[in-house]
Amino acid sequence: MLGPVILAASRSDKMRRVVSAAPVTKPVVNRFIAGESVHETIPVVQNTADRGLEVTLDVLGEDITDPTEALRARDAYLELIEALKPLGLGTRAEMSVKLSSFGQALPGGHDLALKNVTPVVEAAAEIGTTVTLDMEDHTTIDSTLAIHADLRERFPGTGAVVQSYLFRTEDDCRALAEAGSRVRLVKGAYKEPASVAYQDKAEVDKAYIRCLKILMEGEGYPMVGSHDPRIISISQELARRAGRKLDDYEFQMLFGIREAEQHRLAAEGHRMRVYIAYGTDWYGYFMRRLAERPANLAFFLRSLVSRG
After folding, report:
1. In the chain, which residue ranges form alpha helices assigned H by DSSP?
2. What is the C-alpha end-to-end distance of the chain, expressed in Å?
3. pLDDT per position as a tens digit, 131-174
4. Residue 307 has pLDDT above 50, yes or no
5. CA pair distance 273, 58, nearest whole angstrom
6. Residues identified as active-site
């Protein structure tokens, strides 16, 4: 029941000020956020790669209100790509982008987001890596998938994200599970109405498995975005039944969560990618991490108590 409350708080300017001002917040945020700048984050990327893990990088920022901010988001990713180039990691270090950061919600936002994200995808391709388009709330899905289709005409490795709690996602999985596609499946972390999304956790989990089966049996490359031990086990079984080798799909988990499990999967030969977010605009991302798992919220509350 707390999840919807926390998600509502993630959109509240008042709560943003309260949480940001709390002395305990920064040490706890550091569990989930790699740093505030690209210079702080690159050593984290290198260290993660040295331990046999792969990464996808998210420069935090969303809900922008001005085209100038969209250009800043573009430039932040271009700066990241320049910083990644000397590491020579190729697709072991890709990027995740939210199109809202590139102006999608502004007037003429679809075309603006496509215009701003294209140089990022081009620059990523030049250093041998890829970009995945994160999915946001349900009102943005058609635009995001259309931009994804447009980008894939020139950059077929461009990935997409789908969210199992939405009723439409099984159909989206069928459309996306084609040869050469890269699709990350997550449960979903936005507050969605009952008219478009499952509200019960058990129903979301069932939908996740149905979607996962579609992706595993398809011709694309599934990316399993989950920390749930049961989902991970089912993923391995579905991959086995579909005749997939260990490098024919991958697991993805968030930076700072279930690190021992990340290393266990990598040691077994799985591709294990860590979602590393960084930047100063961390509030919305942080609150969604708290809402996703009771353990995350408990961790934060314990820290509040212990430091109080």
Report:
1. 2-9, 13-21, 25-29, 38-50, 67-84, 109-126, 141-154, 169-176, 201-217, 229-241, 259-267, 283-292, 294-307
2. 25
3. 999 999 999 999 999 999 999 999 999 999 999 999 999 999 99
4. no
5. 13
6. 134, 184
